[in-house]
Design brief:
Low-confidence stretches: none
Mean pLDDT: 90
Strand content: 5-15%
Largest sheet: 7 strands, mixed
Length: 623
Amino acid sequence: MLKGLNPQQKAAVEYLDSPLFLSAGAGSGKTKVLTHKLAYLVKEKGIRPHRILAITFTKKAANEMAERVGRMLGIEPRWISTFHSFCVKVLREDVEGLLMPFDRRFVIYDEDDCARVLKDVLRRFNRDPREAQAAREVISKAKQEYRSSIVDHIRALAYPASTFAETAKEYQNELERSNAMDYDDLLYFTVRALSDSPEVRKKWQEKFDYVMIDEFQDTNDIQFQLIKLLAGGKKGLFAVGDFFQCIYTWRGSRPSNIGRFIREFRAREMRLEKNYRSMRKILDVANVVVSRVDCNWSDTVLQLRTDTEEEGEVKYVGRSDGISEGIWIAEKIRELSADYKYSDFAILIRMAFLSRALESVLMQYQVPYTIVRGLAFYDRAEVKDLLSYLRLISNHRDKAAFERIINTPSRGIGKKGLSLIRESFRTDWLQALRETKLPQRQRLNVDELIKTIEKHADSVEERPYTVLMDLLGEVGYFDHLRKEHGEDFEERRENLSELANVLEKLEEEGRPFSEFMEDSLLSSDQDRIGSEDSVKILTLHAAKGLEWPVVFMPALEEEIFPSAKSMLSEAALQEERRLFYVGTTRAKERLYLSSAELRMKFGQTMSMMRSRYVNEIREHLKG
DNA sequence: CTTAGGAAACTTTTT
DNA sequence: GTTTCCTAAG
């Protein structure tokens, strides 16, 4: 289990005397330490694999870790997962019987569903539904900070955040009536379950002999709370992180959790600074960037070292506009494609909209590419519509699903009809649909819908594919598509047949529909990176933890990277710098930086200034 | 209630 | 350049 590890890695694997924090620089082999440590605990220390809990940042990291450990041990430990999917497991077992307004079949709402609910609530309070985004952020933050009363906490905030207190209350009521949780709720209610019930706490504390957490710099308050509850004084506690790669403070990460972990758990601290990923020139640049990152809680500056003799290449080019920048990238990829596969290339962008220009150029040059976020498959309107039908059929309380499909295809139910139906809601939407008084034409349409829902209610869980195929005809969905989206009807039908394929496979394997929904909601962008041989285009955030032989970082321009909004605060600028560091350290052999003088933004051509980061590393660039 | 047309906002980053 | 929201006529 210790073979192939350097002395520092080996020390971290073997150390068991107290909780341990491992500060692991980019490319220093932290995943290796995590997997070897897990295997070591099982093989050398006789701990049973399912008594080890390992929490990772993304599902992709969890799967990879499980697979690697599986190869070493012959079995895959059961408890390698993300915070969110771990919480779902806890809640499915223990949410009932805790005086909580959910039952174990609760569903998870994505941002779209949450926005739907929030907009409706805001409208009822005579407020602008466009505030939904702001309200969502306030509510999310309050839950992440884990206050005993979310509503009181919001009321006490500074204006205008405080005005969302009532909104938050009603939003939560609506989620509870739908038996639905948002992403934050998964953590919030898990922590509540563990803190409120000594029995539940004991059960989960005793389940694990050893707890390890990856990417610790990006944990938030409530996640720290959860770890504390699970730790329950055990010394088998191991966290790995790198302050310099903390890039999620905007959504609540607390890099200070590192210091807190060391203090509160009296953890031993170890470091890994030897880099096994990047060639020398890339590391030189990364070290310049990292030396400018403020880190006031540590006196030792991170300095990555490597033994490799190979130099690699770092190059910067400036181009006149976004298109010629794209052309330069496409030609470079062509030139290098003699020595590399397409999947060896990644283009890392600061903002999603930057993928547009790149996309059209790569298409012209016939370079196969995959945009990792773009529009995710499950975000397509037609896919969401049909999934909402299935959701409503399986959970008659699902408000977001109900509102999505009640008038899709059109049943003549508009604002008026919808508010009548909402008023009759008592137990679920099926009941509300039955009891609402409606004009005759609408009544007939709604009766059809009720019949459809009732007909499939018992089979949707086991036979989602069969139900989907029936549904398409019964509600006349293709007619609706042809009428509403004549131009790209074919494309949309393709998407639906892809959904059908997925569900057919699910049905054949005998996996339930709810499990499928859960999986797709808890997977990250990274999980959607396939193994196909194509150039990957993704945001820097999505690139965290990944690596490629050749990395492009285009659009290095002021107001893009660093972003305009980050310039308002020093803390945000610091985070941008860390993000730039994360970007440069994704590259193994070649790193190509570029910028353009003119760039299309909001459909207008803007004149851009070269990013400060390019100037800072100038002496390390050639060309 | 639907539809068409036009204004306005929109771009950080996401489990 | 695109999506989303609003309005006024049918």
